[in-house]
Amino acid sequence: MSKYLVETHYTCSFKIVHELEELNEKTLQDIDKRQDGKVEIVDLRTIHPLDEELILNTAKRHGKCLVVTEEPSANTFAQSVAALVSYECFEQLDAPVQVLGSENTPAIPLNSNLEQAMIPNATKVEEKIKEILNY
């Protein structure tokens, strides 16, 4: 039984990687069955040096891309990665490159409930995955 990869996620945050691993165990099998493919997570580990070859080859292979970051998504490194993928892989993409980050607030709240609402988690990532897969 052959599978094809339909989406790539890039992240460079330990918390986000943990959330995606949780999502991976909990949800990706269900998404895989419904979409006849699977989701690949690429942990960038470092942003300097940036492994552009890995990023671009993976995006070209999958055709869809979600960049996930713990920082606010406006004016960020994650948007730079999304722009790189959009520019270099435009003809191979099946959907616009998406960025999922925390809410654009001046600081992370000290209240744990507000923090959970602000920062991306497995549920938010799952919703964005479904949105992109259905594009």
Describe the structure.
There is one protein chain. With 135 residues, this protein is of the alpha/beta class. The protein has one domain (4-133): Rossmann fold, CATH 3.40.50. The protein is built from six helices and four strands; from the N terminus they run βααβαβαβαα. It has a four-stranded parallel beta sheet with strand order 2-1-3-4, with helices on both faces. Helix 1 crosses helix 6. The longest helix has 13 residues, at 14-26. The radius of gyration is 15 Å and the shape is globular. It starts with a strand and ends with a helix.
Throw out a few tags for this protein.
single chain, 135 residues, alpha/beta, Rossmann fold, 4 strands, 47% helix
Give a brief outline of the structure.
This protein is α/β, with parallel strands linked by helices and 135 residues long. Helices cover 47% and strands 21% of the residues. The chain has six helices and four strands.
